[in-house]
Amino acid sequence: MTDIFERLMAANKADARELEGWATRATAKFEKLIHLNMAACKTVLGESFGRSQAFLAAKDANELMALQAGMFQALTVNSIDYFNRLFSIEKRTVADLAKDFKVELAEAQTVFSDVVENVIQSAPAGTEGTFADFKNDAKALRNLIE
Asked: What is the residue-wise DSSP string for 84-141?
């Protein structure tokens, strides 16, 4: 029974380390998102002040219309660039999390299977049928998850 406890404690320690790794990676992704948003804010502020000056210096309605068309074109280009970068960050984040989750799930299944095997081996006589049913249910659940 001590072996099972030691294995569970080792698994919990490994899970804590993995959770710390996930938190570190999530923080890094969040930092990328913050940097993206700050760069977008700087771009918008810089362009808006420049465009305001250009609007104030416009001499006629045609020049104003041309400035407005240029503003919408720049806004469209900047928006597309922003969302492409945002999508790239999100895509990498989801891919990393999915990969990590699959690895963790496989490790957890292995630990759980080992614990079940140890419990079955040390079970009192006459309980083999109950533990065999439990083992079959565990396998069915694992197959359902996969």
From this structure: HHHHHHHHHHHHHHHHHHHHHHHHHHHHHHHHHHHHHHTSPTT-HHHHHHHHHHHHHH
Contacts of 89 (CB under 8 A, 6+ apart): 29, 32, 33, 36
Is this structure's pTM higher than 0.85? Answer: no
pLDDT at 145: 66
CA 138 vs CA 110, 113, 134: distances in Å: 12, 8, 6
d(CA 20, CA 124): 39
Instruction: Provide, rounded to the nearest whole percent, the portion of the chain with pLDDT above 70.
Output: 96
Distance, in Å, from the CA atom of 32 to the CA atom of 35, rounded to the nearest integer, reads 5
Compute the 3-state secondary structure of the chain and give helix, strand, coil in percent, each to the nearest 5: 90, 0, 10
Under DSSP, the state recorded for 60 is S
Tokens of 144: 């359902």
Q: Is the dihedral of CA 44, 49, 50, 55 positive or negative?
A: positive
